[in-house]
Structures are given as C-alpha cells and as structure tokens.
C-alpha cells in the first residue's frame, strides 16, 4: 500500500481535526509547566494548513509536507512552530518529488522529522520533550516495517509507541524549554509537545487505514 498526495493531504486534515478536538487539553498541559499557548498555537497553525490545502493540494506527498512546514513556521508561535515546521520540512526534503509514499519512504520521512526536531531543539531522550515520543515512535515504525507492515501498520505502531513515550514524560524532570525552569516541580505533568506528537501520529495512522 502506498499513499499519493491526496491521501497525505487527507491525513493532514485529520490531524488538524484532532488538534482542534484536543486544543483545550494541550492548553491545560502547557499551562501546568509552560506558558499555556501550545494548544492555541498548534490549532491556529493547522487551521491555516487546512485553508492552504483548500486552495490547492500539492501534487506529491513531499509537496504536501512542505506546505505544512512552511505554514506552521509562518503561523505558529512559541517553540511548536519551529520544531514542527522543521520536522515536516526535513521529512518533505527526504521524500523529494516522489509521487507515492511507501513504507521505506515513510521510514525515511519519520527519521528525518526526528532528526530535524533534535537538531532544532537540541533535545535527547529523557529530556521530557516531544523527542521522548518521537524516538520510540521511529523505533517502533522500523520494527513494524521489518515485520512486513504496510503504511497503516507502521504508523499505528509509531502512534502506540508515541503514546507510551508521552506518558513517560510524566515522571521525568524537564531539561529543555520553559518547563526546565520548574525542575522537580514539573514532575507529574505530561509534556504537551510529546502529547501533541502522539496525537498527530495517531491521526495519521487512523487516516491511513
């Protein structure tokens, strides 16, 4: 199974709907350890992405992800815009002009997205950031692909692992971002970026089914 640009665009629309649905949750998570703007910023960004897709859908999967990247970078404030923007931009560059998104290309895109986030945010596993959701997601995606999984199975494995990774941030002392200023006081709170990463991967997985 492969996905063409319209399938990728549909997955992005599904992600936008999930972000809107969970906007208040993300606001509350961020308010506990940050400045409370993560849900609003991400929702505003993905609303703009959908508006851009309504105007024209790029004709390649990479083109769709580049549209997502440039829109998020221009519309989303705080840390989320640069981090997610870089992730989608790196993924789009890895896909290039290919007309289809197959499992090997998906793995390349996921790896590139993670590398982009880490390059931009300088975070590693255990820092209580979105990286704690993305690292296990990429590992699980690779394992699912080795087991013969299609695009939907690979994304589902990634989403499952990202859920667990996001949960793991509850017990971590943040070492990056605004939450790091709280130190031990931040323990007991899930990182909002890890949660939104898991939500996006789940939306992509559901759309791929």
From TrEMBL:
GO CC aspect terms: cytosol
Q: Name one GO biological process term.
A: glycerol catabolic process
Entry keyword Transmembrane: no
Pfam family of this protein, just one? Dak2
Q: Which InterPro entries match?
A: DhaK_L_YcgS, DhaL_dom, DhaL_dom_sf, Dihydroxyacetone_Kinase
Residues annotated as coiled-coil are none
Report keywords, A-Z: Kinase, Transferase
Query: What GO molecular-function term can you cite, just one?
Result: glycerone kinase activity
Q: Fetch the SUPFAM superfamilies from UniProt.
A: DhaL-like (SSF101473)
| DhaL domain sequence ranges | 6-206
Segments passing through the bilayer: none
Per its UniProt record, what PANTHER family does this chain match?
TRIOKINASE/FMN CYCLASE, TRIOKINASE_FMN CYCLASE
Protein name, as recorded: Dihydroxyacetone kinase subunit DhaL
Organism of derivation? Amycolatopsis iheyensis
Q: Which gene encodes it?
A: dhaL
């Amino acid at each position: 199974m492969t996905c063409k640009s319209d399938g990728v665009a549909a997955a992005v629309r599904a992600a936008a709907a999930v972000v809107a649905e969970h906007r208040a949750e993300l606001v509350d998570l961020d308010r506990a350890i940050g400045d409370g703007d993560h849900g609003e910023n991400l929702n505003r960004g993905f609303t703009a992405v959908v508006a851009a897709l309504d105007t024209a859908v790029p004709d390649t999967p990479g083109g769709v992800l580049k549209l997502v990247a440039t829109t998020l970078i221009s519309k989303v404030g705080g840390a989320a815009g640069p981090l997610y923007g870089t992730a989608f931009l790196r993924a789009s560059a890895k896909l290039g002009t290919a007309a289809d998104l197959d499992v090997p290309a998906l793995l390349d895109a996921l790896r590139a997205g993670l590398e982009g986030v880490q390059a931009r945010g300088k975070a590693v596993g255990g820092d209580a950031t979105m990286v704690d959701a993305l690292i296990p997601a990429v590992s699980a995606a690779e394992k699912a692909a080795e087991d013969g999984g299609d695009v939907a199975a690979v994304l589902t494995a990634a989403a499952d692992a990202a859920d667990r990774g996001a949960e793991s941030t509850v017990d971590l002392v943040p070492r990056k971002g605004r939450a790091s200023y709280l130190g031990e006081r931040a323990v007991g709170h899930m990182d909002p970026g890890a949660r939104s990463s898991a939500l996006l991967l789940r939306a992509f997985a559901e759309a791929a089914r």
